[in-house]
Amino acid sequence: MTQMQDKVAPSAQSRVDDWLGRFEAALAARDIDAAAALFAVDSFWRDLVAFTWNLKTVEGRDGASGLLAACLDSIDPSGFRTSEPPTEADGVLEAWIEFETATGRGKGHLRLKAEGAWTLLTSLRELKDFPEPRAELRPKGARHGAVAGRLSWAEELELEQDRLGRRDQPFVVVIGGGQGGIALGARLRQLGVPALVVERNARAGDSWRNRYKSLCLHDPVWYDHLPYLPFPENWPVFAPKDKIADWLEMYTRVMEVPYWTSSEVTSAAYDEETGYWSVTVRRDGEEILLRPRHLVFATGMSGKPNLPSFPGMDEFAGEQHHSSRHPGPDAYRGKKAVVIGSNNSAHDICAALWEHDAEVTMVQRSSTHIVKSDSLMEFGLGDLYSERAVRSGMTTEKADMAFASLPYRIMPEFQIPIYQKIREHDAEFYERLAKAGFQHDWGDDGSGLFLKYLRRGSGYYIDVGAADLVANGEIRLAHGQVDHLTRDSVILGDGTELPADLVVYATGYGSMNGWVADLCGQAMADRVGKCWGLGSETTKDPGPWEGEQRNMWKPTQQPGLWFHGGNLHQSRHYSLYLALQLKARYEGIPTPVYGLQEVHHLS
Amino acid sequence: MTQMQDKVAPSAQSRVDDWLGRFEAALAARDIDAAAALFAVDSFWRDLVAFTWNLKTVEGRDGASGLLAACLDSIDPSGFRTSEPPTEADGVLEAWIEFETATGRGKGHLRLKAEGAWTLLTSLRELKDFPEPRAELRPKGARHGAVAGRLSWAEELELEQDRLGRRDQPFVVVIGGGQGGIALGARLRQLGVPALVVERNARAGDSWRNRYKSLCLHDPVWYDHLPYLPFPENWPVFAPKDKIADWLEMYTRVMEVPYWTSSEVTSAAYDEETGYWSVTVRRDGEEILLRPRHLVFATGMSGKPNLPSFPGMDEFAGEQHHSSRHPGPDAYRGKKAVVIGSNNSAHDICAALWEHDAEVTMVQRSSTHIVKSDSLMEFGLGDLYSERAVRSGMTTEKADMAFASLPYRIMPEFQIPIYQKIREHDAEFYERLAKAGFQHDWGDDGSGLFLKYLRRGSGYYIDVGAADLVANGEIRLAHGQVDHLTRDSVILGDGTELPADLVVYATGYGSMNGWVADLCGQAMADRVGKCWGLGSETTKDPGPWEGEQRNMWKPTQQPGLWFHGGNLHQSRHYSLYLALQLKARYEGIPTPVYGLQEVHHLS
User: Is the bond leading into B592 cis (omega within 30 degrees of zero)?
Assistant: First the structure.
């Protein structure tokens, strides 16, 4: 632009302020049409709780109208402003925004084109009457002054722990004490919502300790922080499972998460009239009845193993188990190992077996998307979650919001170029894989790993070394479906015989509502339907389009029943919204839900 | 200043750059006189390891000359520059600086007057060849690729722990696993120095768990962070002892500090010829011999109780113990408790007893300095260690350096006005105390709490409520020395009889070299001399002036023997310098010590 043009063209700040001003004015005047007209034809408004008391993405002007028609009065939003100077690139203005509602304070993000708003993200960050006690509001700790009959912190905590579940009922019970349950438990504690996290293993972190020994995180540290207490500067990029386990264990303690170990939920029933759950927990040989108002399943994306059923499994004389039960390679030196599956667990397990001198065959049943860990870090996450991002001032909160500001519908557009870059960058690697006969895909539409994860939670491998073993033939590759097992081998559909001392079924995991079926009955499992997936009409993610993850972190068709989980990033980020929704209910703040998701699939 | 003057007067940046340029040029030319002349007549150069391989404050031009004459060649400093724009107030320029030496990178601070440098702080931050593996250099974690016979992280750690002290000897043994030993252990781990922290209690953190139950930290959270892993935003301002204990326990684990619990060092002897220690440790009924090159006593400022010896103690029929053994108030409801002492522990214990309905008498033997916790936080620490400091961009590292940049010699000048402000602010409080007969002081020279702490480690109370109980007579006050005990009372020098069921000797702690005497013999204890204190010729801090804390965090008169400790701030900050000194020795980097402290007092 020439200097003279600079003098007449309004700045990015003024253009954003103009839009926000008109948006706010329309909202204040309850002029829904005017507000909707501020959106481009192709536009998306993603609301995380603030307007809809839901996690909801609406599309276009009609979507915005519908949302506003339902929510505007009760939400009464105001105070829209930027929180820092907007930026501009490729004809799109980007702005970080803040705003208020009747009961909350929100933050968000706006992408503005000449035509109007392209993407708007509004997210609730805190409830006005119940700000989190941190920073300036952090608790004092020592109760200064003289308090007759004072109990020490430790005594109070012990008393609270004794009474929980007996004299005092929690408002929320969280089933599952992995990173999801723990992150949510910490948020609820912070917000003063009486809660209890129930974990069946003996120690917090065991869900990681009990995994195969070579397991390390595949997501880098900056992506993985838990709420409030980030990993320190000297934490490794990819933490080994036991290190994560130890961290989770101490986090649970220092964050004062109310947490029962060696405790198993055996059943849960909901009383529609009273709005209470009856949750039975087996603990130390005792059966305890809990009566919360809300029940959160945080049983894990890798919680419910998918164990296939092949003819001859009962004849097979060797060892066989699902990948979730694989102990690691130590016992299989010199043995023939056949691993069914070609995604993450399969690769990890095959590589570890190879490192310990087993003879390893991987049976690939369908194509897998592989991306090298370094490439994913660099091209996929680097702008938001990396040391260089940190150095440039990126905070975890901002990175999470940037991630969230991209509507799922258009995310492929943004991801496809990234994977094209990766494909070029690692061309030689993919060529070697292809030469070895590995069936590789880039996602149905070339949009790569993260979308495969969002759509189906599987079908990929973040390569940390196993792919080279496949490419150079050290791990043998076989293709096809399993037909049956014999006493000592696996027979594929085309008759290929694979002698085996060990068969590992790296065959994935089922939808979390499988747990609902187990604990609450099939009827309730069907009422809430399948968890996860976007309805993208891609492999294993049938339509219709949902707009958000099915059932995750938001109201379901079963009052009082919620799901929490996902990877560490999602456990961290979405635990805030789920905790706020539960806190609002605890405090009796009205939470009219807009656009409660419908159930299109049962599992 | 008028605008015309602005045009001719050089900016703060250029004046600092000018001084730094001339300083660097003089150093490069080895022109010691020229360098010394850049200092004001009344000036101080405090070096933390970078130049002197010591913690050393020198004074005036002669001090600077002496230091440079000894160190300049081997240190070969260069690259002096500001790291941010200097500021100016009251005729003094202040600048944060960076520089390099032959083997290290340093940071520092400069106060410049028209006459020359007033204060210069130079501190070593890292060894060039051994940068800490953090941030961009953080360990990868997962070893990517395929590694035959790979051990998992947990397996490697277990192997290391099995071998430590048996097959593999640590380079450094740290006696004492409280916050000092733990912070140092974490730094040494980070720097790759094989070390072992030996703790006699059963769990890390027990040194706090075992204290009287009402104990909370009296220093606020921002002051207390451990290295690498700060307390989170929602940590209380004043953490209860058990919360700190839990944090220390998990910190030890997640920071992978090599740490033995239930292990007691029984003796330590040094072989002058070989330069090795023989340290015997009793662990699980076994006697283990450790052979480190360096031995660090981190046994605590509150490690060696000072138990007085009064006639009649053996006759007294009630309970009596030192404050360090006080279990808390629970057993003393309705009992008569007499607490000897009027400083921190005495106040805490008296208040807790009062809260549990004991009849409490405090025997004040000498004056005490009291400051209200809120006032200390606000006026004493607020600019550096507070939420508002954090919001204004103050980091812990910077706050520590700002604190360190003030030479001990002139610290009183800076502290006296603060306490004058506090005296005014809390005038009513001090009046009530005086009316109750409490003997209050402001330090010998009115310089208040922190200097009392630095000079003698005691003689004060950070008031969190007990002082009001004294002021209003709920805690009875008696004055004088203890003459003797009878079967059921304490008799003071003036004949006052204080009936007692319980006597608590809140009579303080002894110098850490008492531990050296116990474990290594009196001769070695005398060789190193008294720990702590500045030689200020104030109460309990006899001269001559030392310039730095006696024996702390720096070379002592006993080769291979070191002391670490202090409050959480000092444990954090000074652990860096001690760790660097040990790392340099581990790597064989020359460490010529300038101005090794002489011993002026034995205890």
Answer: no
